[in-house]
Design brief:
Elements: E1 2-6, H1 12-21, E2 25-29, H2 33-41, H3 50-54, E3 59-62, H4 67-75, E4 89-92, H5 98-111, E5 114-117, E6 120-121, H6 123-129, E7 132-137, H7 140-153, E8 154-161, H8 165-193, H9 198-206, H10 213-217, H11 240-257, H12 262-279, H13 288-291
Helix pairs in contact: 1-2, 1-6, 4-5, 8-11, 8-12, 11-12
The site of nicotinamide-adenine-dinucleotide has 27 residues, from helix 4, strand 6 and helix 6.
């Protein structure tokens, strides 16, 4: 299959490379020269523009930051959707508003382009390992067309429902993740300030009733887990500003249906404060810095 992959960032880069390594004819593209260079160095063919990337492709996959990027690329004046022939498969894996995904699906429908929203979970580690979880919104037969591609990038593929349903599942998951990360950081900071070894405390909680994904795979305390962003100064990973965006989407969804999400709201405000303090580009587990007391003197 010929695939255009648009957005080669922390997630899109390794996802495109996994499709390329699986033998698909992939052309990648990104606005960032650094992102393109990184993938090119690993053998991925890079197209000069998104328009050039989609020429003659069977499928287009996008992995962009937020709703406005997806709208501008596909639906804006001279939008890319207008260049796709009927029958093309369009998989958007960005985490965006469910309403935007539905808009894209409707516009695709009008042109005969089959659209899926397929946001992911599993972090950059999952993207590299090809073990992501896909939460898919769209028609079941279209998911079956997409499945062979999704299987090269992920280990779990869920059909959440119709257009936009993948996004709704994703923001529910990420609201929970945002809350869990803050709770985990708070508990670790408390124990360490009281003299506990962070490694020992992490292992105790991991195997006790407080055990969770952050303690298993993404410990926020530097020095505990060599594979986590905390071990590299919180570089790469899942940016604080991306988590802030997802928690904002969760609050918008909650408002629309009058749902009470008090912890999700508090988490959004804490990540907003962390971002305002200049940490928006750091991995979201750096929220530890917001709750960590300074070392005691003497
Ligand atoms: P990122 O910022 O690292 O990458 C996004 C890339 O999109 C950038 O390289 C940017 O230059 C590129 N881009 C933006 N507009 C473009 C355009 N018009 N054409 C081509 N390229 C364009 O972000 P990421 O961490 O890879 O996340 C991407 C999406 O996946 C986000 O919606 C995020 O919420 C979601 N997500 C991220 C993680 C994670 O752990 N990083 C996990 C799950 C989901």
């Amino acid at each position: 299959m010929k695939i255009a992959f648009i957005g080669l960032g922390n997630m899109g880069g390794p996802m495109a490379l996994n499709l390329h390594k699986a033998g698909h004819e992939v052309r990648g593209v990104d606005l960032s020269a650094a992102a393109c260079d990184k993938c090119r160095a690993e053998g991925l063919p890079i197209a000069p523009s998104a328009a050039a990337a989609v020429e003659g492709t069977d499928a287009v996959i996008s992995m962009l930051p937020a709703s406005q990027h997806v709208e501008a690329l596909f639906l804006g004046a001279d939008g890319l959707l207008g260049r796709l022939p009927a029958g093309t498969l369009l998989i958007d894996s960005s985490t965006i508003a469910a309403a935007t995904s539905r808009k894209l699906a409707e516009a695709g429908d009008a042109r005969g382009v089959a659209v899926l929203d397929a946001p992911v979970s599993g972090g950059t580690g999952g993207a590299v390992a090809g073990t992501l979880t896909f939460m898919v919104g769209g028609e079941a037969p279209v998911l079956e067309r997409a499945r062979p591609l999704l299987e090269k990038m992920g280990a779990n593929i869920f059909h959440a429902g119709g257009a936009g349903a993948g996004q709704t599942a994703k923001i529910c998951n990420n609201m929970l993740l945002g809350v869990l990360m803050i709770g985990t950081a708070e508990a670790l900071a408390l124990g360490v300030a009281n003299g506990l070894d962070p490694q020992v405390l992490s292992e105790i909680m991991r195997r006790s009733s407080g055990g969770n994904w952050a303690l298993e795979k993404y410990n926020p305390m530097p020095g505990v887990m060599q594979t986590a962003p905390a071990a590299r100064g919180y570089a790469g990973g899942f940016g604080t500003d991306l988590m802030l965006k997802d928690l904002g989407l969760a609050q918008e969804s909650a408002t629309a249906v009058k749902a009470a999400t008090p912890l999700g709201g508090l988490a959004r405000n804490l990540y907003a404060a962390h971002s305002l303090a200049g940490h928006g580009a750091l991995d979201f587990s750096s929220i530890l810095r917001l709750v960590q007391p300074p070392p005691r003197k003497g």
